[in-house]
Amino acid sequence: MEYITDFRWKKGIKVEEYVEQLGKVGFQSIELKNASDIVIKMKKAGAKIFLSFTSNMVTSGLRGFFAQAIRLGLANIIVTTVGAIEEDIMRANGEKFVIGDFDSNDVALYEEGTNRVGNIFVRNESYAKFEDLMIPILQKLYAMKPRWPVSEMLREIGLMINDENSILCQAAKNNVPIFCPAITDGAFGFHLFMFQQKHSDFVVDVVKDFANIVFSTTHDEIKGLISLGGSISKHHAIFACLLNGGLDYAVYMTTASHSSGSMSGATTREAKSWGKIKDDSDAATVIGDVTITFPLVMIRAFEELSKEGIVKGE
Amino acid sequence: MEYITDFRWKKGIKVEEYVEQLGKVGFQSIELKNASDIVIKMKKAGAKIFLSFTSNMVTSGLRGFFAQAIRLGLANIIVTTVGAIEEDIMRANGEKFVIGDFDSNDVALYEEGTNRVGNIFVRNESYAKFEDLMIPILQKLYAMKPRWPVSEMLREIGLMINDENSILCQAAKNNVPIFCPAITDGAFGFHLFMFQQKHSDFVVDVVKDFANIVFSTTHDEIKGLISLGGSISKHHAIFACLLNGGLDYAVYMTTASHSSGSMSGATTREAKSWGKIKDDSDAATVIGDVTITFPLVMIRAFEELSKEGIVKGE
Amino acid sequence: MEYITDFRWKKGIKVEEYVEQLGKVGFQSIELKNASDIVIKMKKAGAKIFLSFTSNMVTSGLRGFFAQAIRLGLANIIVTTVGAIEEDIMRANGEKFVIGDFDSNDVALYEEGTNRVGNIFVRNESYAKFEDLMIPILQKLYAMKPRWPVSEMLREIGLMINDENSILCQAAKNNVPIFCPAITDGAFGFHLFMFQQKHSDFVVDVVKDFANIVFSTTHDEIKGLISLGGSISKHHAIFACLLNGGLDYAVYMTTASHSSGSMSGATTREAKSWGKIKDDSDAATVIGDVTITFPLVMIRAFEELSKEGIVKGE
Amino acid sequence: MEYITDFRWKKGIKVEEYVEQLGKVGFQSIELKNASDIVIKMKKAGAKIFLSFTSNMVTSGLRGFFAQAIRLGLANIIVTTVGAIEEDIMRANGEKFVIGDFDSNDVALYEEGTNRVGNIFVRNESYAKFEDLMIPILQKLYAMKPRWPVSEMLREIGLMINDENSILCQAAKNNVPIFCPAITDGAFGFHLFMFQQKHSDFVVDVVKDFANIVFSTTHDEIKGLISLGGSISKHHAIFACLLNGGLDYAVYMTTASHSSGSMSGATTREAKSWGKIKDDSDAATVIGDVTITFPLVMIRAFEELSKEGIVKGE
Asked: Quick check: D257 and B257 CB within 8 A?
């Protein structure tokens, strides 16, 4: 039996110690510490680790942190939505997103060519420049072959990027596949469509990529998942693991509630009814904004795992 | 200036009157009445109406209501996720989903072969039978041609279904395209993959389907959206309209909060910064479980529009 | 075993039928129908029914509906916060609250003397006039005696009000006590304080009122609770029932989540660990905005109970 | 213009640096960093600082952190609910709360005498022992005088407690008043009631305590508020400041949404319409579980303020 313990600040307290102590504070802080324990365990157990996230997180400064997680060897397979791909490429190309305000005048923003994502601003010109980037990229890919499974296409694009903080770049360098089941749902899709209008044999083969994610792991391998937010990124990673016997370790981090039966709000407990997560697995669901909670979970994991040489330190 | 008015029950009150009165109650009830007004306006204005929803809503009894909205001529274009397709086909095939409990013992459910979606139970055998259905369907499709845009494939499947309450059936009958940008993200994707293993030239052409959704409407047409829940269904419908100049009318209904910058929680106000929704459009965001709020919004719209002969009555 | 059933609109559908059908739709709609069943059962069983709500609901048009529930004999004991008392008195005095907008310019509102509660506006002058009302009321009360338990004070005030839609008026007329454990937390408290500055022996006896709520029911009586929102209104009603052996029937309706351990988000399931709700009780928790969900629950109950003559019809 | 910056872990990163970097990550992390800035500013400006919290936070390990904030001179006035008082006394008396599970079997917990608050367990015997403590305390108080304003009563109780981690103890030692507008809403209220049954002249004077909170600050003093959670604690602190001209600095931290018009979810923006927060004030609203976010906000404030000698270090 463990007891709730009064939290107290000590001068110079480190994030690692902070998260350690959160385990005895209460409510979501306990779940957060559990999530951190599970990440450490899954890595120590040699699990193949799926990391899924939604595009708003890549609009945020978590982008560089995801790239770092790949570089340090923590994540083995990425699942995300196409907005994440677009924004990673924009940022690698030098675009800057502005710290804005939730309570902006949105009509005024529109008139000045600024798009709002919560309290982050992305300018129209960032999308215009993205177009300039995409055309030569698609030409290069098409010159290689006309039919592309998504993850193979993203790997090739990653190899063209030279930015340490880029998810695509680090994934390509470290042989981490990126799956994106709805590749057409954004500006990227628009450019694919424009390209196909001129080259009708150009095909993005999403069915082949389903094979790729299923074959990215096996029934016998230990499997772990860190799922941030909801949407198809979350579902796709879970489903791929289900087809291989279910997850041994799972951490869900989301703001959504389970009360409406959505995938975004589905808990690790519900997942057990499906066999998505094994009965005897280690699993935790942490409710809260991942821009705050995810780095806390991971910093403690990195600190501990780097001490044991399981991930690289820096 | 309009005033808050004391709500009172009158014996035999109809849903239409109820929603009318909600407009003077407060908080989300006001937004709900606004949403209903906007649906009526968009239809009267002759807008092309996009209806987007997530798969959990098709697991629920909203499925038949979506089919009815298509049959009565309210929705012109559907955008959804693949789980919705799967469950619509299962239900058309006679599968029954059970009214369950949020607080179930999930490990026990797993052992008895029951999968939980909130407080709805779907049995494993429903998925097994789905497999039996899919194989001949894919064979028929392949016999016609090897390369299929998603919406064209779904239309063909819809034509094979004979169930008045089926979304696919009604959509096919009424020439309403169904877009599903992440077609592989579920059991349907698994069967596509198995089929492609044997027929390597079989391709699902998602890029061509992007052209289809873009060409499903034009810059000059008046455009309206009713978006339920979040995820790529919401984004895809909005993005297709943005490419054609933005929405004239928009109703978002969701349980998600805007506080984390997610697409699921993005409001109609934020959408204006992007030009997704025009400055001078009619737009409302209703927070709440759509299994309760969506029928309220729509029943009042159906009552009013059927009186004027704009949708069929029944 | 009951099955999810496709929902379909029928022309002229009544609220009663609508709620009936929601029971087979899914997610919160099922819980809502359960809540309605439980309200019917508690009344048929002859339970003493506690109704608790927060002040924002009385700012809304639910005010008249609460008054109606008291008048029709549905609620036997009311627990609320002082803002509800203030706004009921203001409204009885002819003040009108304006239908506003969540996305208002709050600084501009301040400058024009308008206070915002979500999308409802209350003008400063409503508070100024409230002061004019309170002074003679307190003088009358003080002339009667110097020491007042809260519920007895509110009963006297209710007897001075002549407004069919007033909660205080109907409660006084129908011998329904109103408990308000934090009577000083608002403008009402300010006027009590000003009055006590001049009359130092004037005392509001909250401890005596605790006796009153405890003695308002007994161990042997069947007890039911309809709790709307959270806060001390919810807790106070539950706690009073716990001291008398716990609730036999309970409906919680709230927007809050249980994830942070708050009372507002506490579920009927958690309540069972305390004995607040008996093991074998009928209990339901409905997540959503009560301005939409509460009337749905109650209209069906009123329709059914009035047919059987258990509540009055109208 | 400030830009979103890629977050990266550095070995041994401190909480202070972490929060600093959150300011450039996005969504709630930006708001959290703003909140931390505002706490630093309000203290440097010499503001009288109100700290309000709900009882569930004192069930958690934040209890000791609140006591520390008082001891270090950060909070000048406390507003809370009675559950917080009860649990602080229990803990000071050696009671231990157990780290539990949100997904417990609540009926089984009841049978073993365990009460659940989210994922924290409090045993029945803790309440039984609380009764043994309260009787002599009330006798001592009554021997001093029969009529007690709440904050004066809580101060006397605080002086009887010897526990560095106790909120009441530290508040009494440091002349920080604790206001609790609903003092009867819990076990404490029950014991007051039992005592008054025997001593009918025993009175808790809540009206006098309203005077005390109003006079605890003045129109001319700079005023700041850190409000955690909602409920009357939040409202009472804000209202007391409104009567003295409104707040110069305000930080709201909550899990509630503004969409239902509740006080718990009311934002600092809405507060400006009331003049609760001055137009030109510094204000931030942070959405999330305070067991995680509040220590982050405060640790950075403590680190910075202790460097400058404005609060004590340790």
From this structure: yes
- Of the listed ranges A43-47, A172-176, A249-253, A258-262, the least confidently predicted one is A258-262
Minimum mean pLDDT range among A308-312, B24-28, B208-212, D166-170:
A308-312
Phi, psi of B222 (to 5 degrees): -75, 135
D260 touches chain B (CB under 8 A): yes
Q: How many CB atoms lie within 10 A of CB C108?
A: 12
- Beta strand extents in chain C (DSSP E only): 48-52, 77-79, 98-99, 114-117, 120-123, 147-148, 178-179, 203-204, 223-228, 247-254, 277-287
Catalytic residue among B276, B278, B307, B312: B276
**Taking CA atoms, what residue in B is nearest to A103?**
B270
Question: Residue B306, class by beta-carbon neighbours within 10 Å (0-12 exposed, 13-18 middle, 19+ buried)?
Answer: middle
H-state helical runs in C112-262: 124-144, 150-160, 167-173, 187-198, 206-214, 231-242
Tell me the residues of chain C between 167 and 206 that have a Cβ less than 8 Å away from chain B.
none
Identify all chain D residues contacting C278, using CB atoms and an 8 Å cutoff: none
Calculate mean pLDDT across residues A221-248: 95
Q: Which two tokens stand for residue C215?
A: 């003695």
Give the tens place of pLDDT for each residue, A115-142.
999 999 999 999 999 999 999 999 999 9
pLDDT of residue D263: 86
Q: Where are the domains of chain A?
A: 26-94+128-307
Other beta carbons less than 10 A from residue B169's beta carbon: 23
pLDDT along chain B (314 residues), means of 10: 96 98 98 98 97 97 98 97 97 96 94 95 93 95 98 98 98 98 97 97 98 97 96 94 96 91 89 89 95 98 95 81
Of D26, D259, D287, which is closest to B28 when you measure between CB atoms? Answer: D259
B contacts of C11 (beta carbons < 8 Å):
303, 306, 313-314
For C:269-288, CB contacts with B below 8 A are 269, 287-288
CATH of domain B16-95+125-307: 3.40.910.10
Do residues B170 and B164 make contact, with C-beta atoms less than 8 angstroms apart? yes
Mutant choice from C231, C270, C277 vs D, greatest count of D C-beta within 10 A? C231
CA angle C240, C246, C252 (to 5 degrees): 80
- Spatial contact of B143 and B60, defined as CB atoms under 8 Å apart: no
User: In whole angstroms, what is the distance from residue D184 CA to residue D203 CA?
Assistant: 12
Please provide the average confidence, as pLDDT, over all residues in chain A: 96
User: Whole-model pTM?
Assistant: 0.97
Q: Which two tokens stand for residue A167?
A: 């998810």
Exactly one of D276, D278, D307, D312 is catalytic; name it.
D276
Q: What is the pLDDT of residue D88?
A: 98
Query: Is A276 annotated in the active site?
Result: yes
Average pLDDT over residues C31-44: 98
How close D255 gets to chain C, by Cα (Å)?
A: 7
Cβ D264–C231 below 8 Å, yes or no? Answer: yes
Task: Give the architecture-level CATH label for domain D46-93+129-290.
Answer: 3-Layer(aba) Sandwich (3.40)
Is A224 in contact with A248 (CB distance < 8 Å)? yes
Pick the CATH number of A26-94+128-307 from 3.40.140.10, 3.40.50.720, 3.40.910.10, 1.10.357.20: 3.40.910.10
Contact A99 D291 (CB under 8 A): no
Question: In chain A, which residues have their Cβ closer than 8 Å to the Cβ of B255?
Answer: 256-257, 259-260, 262, 265
Size of interface A-D (CB pairs under 8 A): 214
Confidence of residue C107 (pLDDT cuts 50, 70, 90): very high
pLDDT at D142: 98
**Are C263 and D54 in contact, with CB atoms under 8 Å apart?**
yes
A100 pLDDT more than 90: yes
ipTM here: 0.96
